[in-house]
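Fold sample X.
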Amino acid sequence: MVSVAVDGRRPDRSSEERIDEIRRKLEGVLGVPATEGNQVDVLRNGDEIFPAMLEAISGARHAIDFLTFVYWRAEIGTSFAETLSERARSGVRVRVLLDAWGARPIDHGLIDMMQDAGVRVRWFRPLHRLQPTKLNHRTHRKVMIVDEEIGFTGGVGIADEWRGDARNEDEWRDTHFRVRGPAVDGLRAAFLDNWLETETELYDPAIDRFPQQPQPGEAVIQCVRGASEAGWSDMSTLLLALLQLAEQRVRITTAYFVPGEELIERLCVAGDRGVKVEILLPGPHADKRFVQQAGQSVFERLLRHGVRIWRFRPSMLHAKIMTVDGLVANVGSANFNARSTELDEEINLVALDPALVRLLDEQFDDDLDRSEEIDADRWRDRSLRRRVLEGLTKPLRHKI
């Protein structure tokens, strides 16, 4: 875990001007103001992420709001349920929102434990109550807010697969942010946005204080929510805007890479403009082979335009990170695929902070050292069987 808020170095004037330009354009195309003075801690892998989250829960005094897509039958799931229950018994208001599809493997004994302790557990879009047209629209957000002061978001789910430090195939690679400052309000809104589908109480005046947020750091952060069923979401706009704004380098880490035609075209255009486009994807331990094959179907086209692609070897790569020109980072729950841009509820934080981006780029380089780059010539000569398997995914690419 590394905090970037204490880094006293400031970018030179030209970088400051560029940051202001990027901020203004992102605010303009998304209509979402950025907030200043945020402190961001980068949490890498379960060894850092889970202790930080559990520590925050244990220290809660007033309220905990917790939203996740994945909550599987696991030891770490028991740890979270026990800690949340202990806080609820101590008088803390605890709300837990689980996606009815992603969290269906949960041990229901844990739900009973939490509810008996006073935790308000709700299911987002229960499968038995939905119209068939809504079954495929889920909340993929991962959000936790403690005492309206500390927020967490990123890619991690509550399952033992995320424990450890990505040393082997049993320890998934992921990144989470811990945030203090005005951006916490944006994370609260992302939670409430989904919670209000299950309850109509917006807030409790006896608990929710809506404090004036402090400004403990230097990071400028924009909270971008992706909404399901919109056809075109702010998440799509965000990804396209970042690719268009890039002048030197784009680095993308994503678990599920099945971009739509608009994103494919923008990646190719960036490569043609001389932007260094580098993409890091899961390798031999990908958890969804069909999705991996669907993404591979566009490799040849991207490689022709100078895009470089690597596959992470030690374990399943589940992080969702994008950095641009060493100045801006985009981290959250959204992948580079149609599910995230068109179908699911997502939340990402766009951080304009060179120190933070420098750290994320260093971690990207470390991940590349444990990855294998796709050779354009060898990929062009891949077998007919592989091409056929990739082709079979075409009818479903807009759904995965």
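Fold sample Y, listed below.
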Amino acid sequence: MKPETEEAVQAAKGLLTELVIVASLVRALTDSFGSASDLYQKLKRKSSPKDSDDEDRFHISMFGHRRRDSGFGMSGSSKDLCESEGELIFTSSAQIRAEYERGYRMIGESFARGDATAQIQLQSQIIQLQRVLLVIHQDLSMSSYIAPSSTHSHLVRLIQTTRTARAASMAALSMQYQRMLPTPSPSPRQPDPPFSPPCSPPGAFPDPEDTWHTTKPFKPRRRTGDSSSSSTSSEDKEFKILPIPNPISKPKPAPKPAPKPEPDLKPKPKPEDKPTKTRLFCIYAKELQDNPLMPLADAYKPCGDNKCPFCRTYLAMRPGKIWEIVVDNCRESKHLRRKPLYRVFRIKNRFIVKSHREQGGFACVLCARFRRFDMLCRDIGSLMDHLWREHTADELEWDCDILEC
């Protein structure tokens, strides 16, 4: 009875492994985003209509530059912020589904099945999102009266969790797509045709070598005496032919020994060092870029020394600090006028750490990902100024360490 039970357990485990695929996880994730949008509407109705727009704002003033009609630290209206938050909640399911359909259209069933890395990442995001939804639902059901401050805290927590889950899930699907791209195989080389000698036309002369081997060797004729010779020549005379003596070769003089080469006292030139190709990012920064869920090292915590654990580069920043950038996203209205829409983004310390280099300074992660050329910055301020000037809102919201308010 015991072996039969173990076989049933193993069969159940195999069935669960086959059922847990990326397609079912994406479906569960989109359902969770739909529940989050319903909860957002419910909390929005219970919250007070007047909320403060000045809570925990961090602004940057850099060199007095202005970008069109926007600038550092320019606060948007509460209506625009509410529209951006609602758009974030309501469009998360569509964005996740579009990313999944792109990979499925290019790769096929193997992308729908997925690998273990993508499955674990998507499962963790589903668990975190459903846990927050459950906690908020329990709080709403257990209390008869909810203060506006409590409703506001629930809204902030729901928005932050939804933003993190959306960015991490899209990154997991994108990295799975990169891992499953087929590598181009080199085409096999065809063998050369065998060499065949040219055929001789009929009636041509044979080759000299063939003529030499086919002809018979020449035999000299014997010379016989003439029958009309005189009687005086009847007597035969014998002649002895002596061999030609070989000339005695004179002994060759012994060759003189070659003189020994004098030692070269000049110092040999040192070989030139080959230039080594420098990396754009530090190895630790590259690991943070490849693993969006990887936390920062203990060196960047309040008791740390703010030094990279790999290259020991010091980063001048405080733990928990956030940089805020306001960019404009102009849209056309019904009267064909471009209406400025300001979007606020907050940049965490993790983005700064994953942008540093071994020799010091920083390199833009967004340029390395979306642009043809790389951008190097001397300090954090120039990096923030570059992000504000050169990158659009669509590029900023793609990074998981840049959060939109």
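Sample Y note: The first strand starts at residue 323 and ends at 328.
Also: Residues 283-404 form one domain.
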